[in-house]
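User: Could you go from structure to sequence for me? I need the amino acid at each position, not a summary. Structure tokens:
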């Protein structure tokens, strides 16, 4: 026994002298594991400690034995990300980077337990576990693990995933979920030499991209922030195609490249994307877009984006919505505007709260959550398309005219934006002598200073902004300012809800609204069909 003890002690000593870097060098880094598919949280050490923080919610204690039915926050997004197992994937990546076996052992243990507890179609398995997005996102960590664990249960699980991914009844064509499904199916097909799966993924992807991204590079999902996600996923898809010895279809690469300008135009001068549709006000693109040649761009998908100049935080910026009826990540925001000027938000949408099935979530989708005109006494008809019917581009001024029949009669809005001497003017009317009313949601930092005689002043310290309203060149009063209550809310970040000031106009056959940032006392006149604001003149009809 003594003779065996010396070599054993020596062996243990030599093992202790192997550095983490040397151990990592013995592990092959794989394309499936390396990349930017992992979320920012949790870290590998968090997972090893048994705590995971998902979708910005507080850390949840997993424990050693994981409860796969867990839903501690009753949050759909949390459940989907939990079941995606990407947090498990952090362990395999850490194994590749450090060579420490404990990470791979725990990843294997977690995944084997998940496979046993979540059989497809088995009684007790939650249905959402096997819906399209968890399935496609889960494929990446499973493929990553398969590069280091050769086990029949893992291969069988990936086979089940592939069958679901290839099922045409479950495919989300023309949507970012479809792109993720194609990436996942391509990955499994290439990993196991299943050309039929790889062929299907490649052919479907081209069709989906052509529906999801138009020839101008605009995302058709009606929330610009998703363009960043889709652009990133297309980079992954094209990289994986090349790694699988496949030619990238020209239509995919061309439309992906065009998306960069769309993201640039939908990014405000403060560096954050304009929060239209299911888009948070805290979204930074964090991708190289380049600088487009034009300051103003109109997209057939239903957007106008304009600014004074590129590269200047104080530049004015505006967005206008029109186009196809609401779908996917869109809101009922047609004819709506947002406005940013002099380095700050002026007019904002209610924003994106969450995907939870709550009354507040559904309210954020409604017209009342956006800066739009409503037709008094008429019922709103959801998912109605709108048209941009006239434009007038100038270097220092742009004007647009839009219309739809979302209330059963023609609803028309004209928008004029003047640069240099910043102002926005909006004219609303409806056919058949119907009266209109409009809603103006101001940034939460702006508080009411005064409200009388058709003039509402809001301010934040020394900064002031003035709203004036006219009907047939006569100033009209009776504006109601609501903070909180039914409409005075905004959700600038995920799961947040805060009160803000919303100006609700009186009803009139036509309403001309003028927004003047930077002052509480603009000199305004309206006569002879012409409006003059601090020396800046324009037609009372705008366009």
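Assistant: Here is the amino acid at each position, in order:
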């Amino acid at each position: 026994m003594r003779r065996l003890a010396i070599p054993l002690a020596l062996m243990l000593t030599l093992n202790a002298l192997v550095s983490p870097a040397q151990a990592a060098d013995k592990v092959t880094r794989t394309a499936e594991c390396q990349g930017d598919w992992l979320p920012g949280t949790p870290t590998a050490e968090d997972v090893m400690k048994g705590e995971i923080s998902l979708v910005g919610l507080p850390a949840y204690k997993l424990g050693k034995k994981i409860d796969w039915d867990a839903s501690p926050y009753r949050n759909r997004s949390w459940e989907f990300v939990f079941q995606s197992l990407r947090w498990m994937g952090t362990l395999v990546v850490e194994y590749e980077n450090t060579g420490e076996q404990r990470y791979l052992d725990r990843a294997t243990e977690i995944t084997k337990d998940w496979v046993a507890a979540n059989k497809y179609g088995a009684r007790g398995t939650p249905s959402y576990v096997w819906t399209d997005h968890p399935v496609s996102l889960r494929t990446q960590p499973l493929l990553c693990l398969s590069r280091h664990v050769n086990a029949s249960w893992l291969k069988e699980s990936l086979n089940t995933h592939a069958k679901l991914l290839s099922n045409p009844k479950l495919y989300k064509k023309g949507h970012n979920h479809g792109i993720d499904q194609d990436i996942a199916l391509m990955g499994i097909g290439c990993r196991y030499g299943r050309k039929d799966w790889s062929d299907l993924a490649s052919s479907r992807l081209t069709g989906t991209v052509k529906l999801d991204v138009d020839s101008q590079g605009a995302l058709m999902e009606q929330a610009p922030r998703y363009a960043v996600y889709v652009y990133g996923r297309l980079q992954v898809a094209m990289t994986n195609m090349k790694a699988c010895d496949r030619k990238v279809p020209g239509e995919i690469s061309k439309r992906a490249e065009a998306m960069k300008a769309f993201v640039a135009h939908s990014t405000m001068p403060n560096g954050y994307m304009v929060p239209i549709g299911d888009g948070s006000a805290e979204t930074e693109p964090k991708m190289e877009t380049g600088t487009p040649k034009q300051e103003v761009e109109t997209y057939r998908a239903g957007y106008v984006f304009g600014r004074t100049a590129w590269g200047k935080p104080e530049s004015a910026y505006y967005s206008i919505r029109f186009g196809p009826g609401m779908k996917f990540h869109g809101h009922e925001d047609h004819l709506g505007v947002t406005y940013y000027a002099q380095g700050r938000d002026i007019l904002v949408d209610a924003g994106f709260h969450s995907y939870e099935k709550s009354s507040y979530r559904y309210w954020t989708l409604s017209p009342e959550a956006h800066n739009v005109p409503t037709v008094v006494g008429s019922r709103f008809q959801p998912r109605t398309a709108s048209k941009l019917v006239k434009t007038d581009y100038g270097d220092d001024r742009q004007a647009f005219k839009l219309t739809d029949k979302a209330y059963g009669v023609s609803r028309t809005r004209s928008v004029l934006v003047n640069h240099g001497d910043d102002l926005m003017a909006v004219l609303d009317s409806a056919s058949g002598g119907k009266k209109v009313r409009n809603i103006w949601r101001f940034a939460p930092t702006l508080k009411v200073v005064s409200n009388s005689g058709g003039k509402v002043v809001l301010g934040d310290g020394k900064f002031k902004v003035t709203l004036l309203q006219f009907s047939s060149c006569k100033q009209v009063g009776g504006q109601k300012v609501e903070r909180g209550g039914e409409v005075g809310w905004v959700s600038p970040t995920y799961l947040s809800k805060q009160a803000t000031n919303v100006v609700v106009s009186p009803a009139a056959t036509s309403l001309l609204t003028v927004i003047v940032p930077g002052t509480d006392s603009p000199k305004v006149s309206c006569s002879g069909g012409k409006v003059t604001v601090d020396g800046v003149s324009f037609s009372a009809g705008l366009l």
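One structural detail worth keeping in mind: Confidence is low (pLDDT under 50) at residues 1-18.
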